[in-house]
């Protein structure tokens, strides 16, 4: 069963999340879980998964490291998502009766890293569609506001889909066949006039944001590591969605192909929380 020690969102947090598409949750994650996640992340960086990337050029300062979909092979990740209480936090924010786990995404910017994370929103990357979705961005180090991700308040309600963008150079994905827009278009997004949200964070804080909330992250020109893990959760109304190009994570390339609107298979997207009971990793056929 889920362990105690996590601080769930209060009603004001839920209201802000639904209104603005993003909310900071202070002192939400217990120190013991942060310590375990820190060890797991260092193991991940020492033993990257098949989808790991280094976005910093070989001759560039710092290091921008990313990896995802390793929760089945790294015990610290798996235990956190299934046993920490984070799933019930996601359920409250989404207003859902069941929570499925999508994936974790490690994002590390070492001191002196010059690469920004381009403006984007997440849903067009993904093979899912729905309104009951949330990411929890959990830092493992202090994050000054100067290196914190920035979120455009209310952008999850714009009713638009923007092209996914490559983190390595900020270029749009080669998507075609649906009504996507580029964030570079004149009638698109204007950062200078946007209503932005960012914060100074301490380990234990978390940023909750909707998959449609537009965001970016600046370079890390501080003397601090910026290690973070984003955890992606899905609610009751989420179904499979085929994108007009290669999505990220690339589930079709990983061996899963479904028609639009199909229910999500539990062996790929396990139910980790439901009203009255919690599904454990072992019940959903995840490997150790």
What does this entry look like structurally?
The protein is an alpha+beta fold and 288 residues long. It has a single domain, classed as Sandwich (Jelly Rolls), CATH 2.60.120. Helices cover 15% and strands 23% of the residues. Strands 1, 2, 3, 4, 7, 12, 14 and 16 form an eight-stranded antiparallel sheet that branches. The chain has a four-stranded antiparallel sheet with strand order 5-13-8-11, with no helix packed on it. Helix 2 runs antiparallel to helix 3. It is globular, with a radius of gyration of 18 Å. The C terminus is likely disordered.
Provide the descriptors you would attach to this structure in a database record.
288 residues, alpha+beta, Jelly Rolls, 8-stranded antiparallel sheet, 4-stranded antiparallel sheet, 4 helices, 15% helix, disordered C terminus
User: What is the CATH fold-level name?
Assistant: Jelly Rolls
Number of domains: 1
Poorly predicted regions: 278-288
Give the CATH level 1 class.
Mainly Beta
- Oligomeric nature of the chains: single chain
Structural class based on helices, strands and sheet pairing: alpha+beta
Question: What's the helix and strand layout?
Answer:
Blueprint: H1 11-20, E1 22-25, H2 31-46, E2 53-54, E3 64-68, H3 75-83, H4 86-94, E4 98-109, E5 117-120, E6 128-129, E7 133-139, E8 150-152, E9 161-162, E10 180-181, E11 196-197, E12 206-209, E13 215-217, E14 226-234, E15 239-240, E16 271-274
Parallel strand pairs: 9-10
Antiparallel strand pairs: 1-12, 2-3, 3-4, 4-14, 4-16, 5-13, 6-15, 7-12, 7-14, 8-11, 8-13
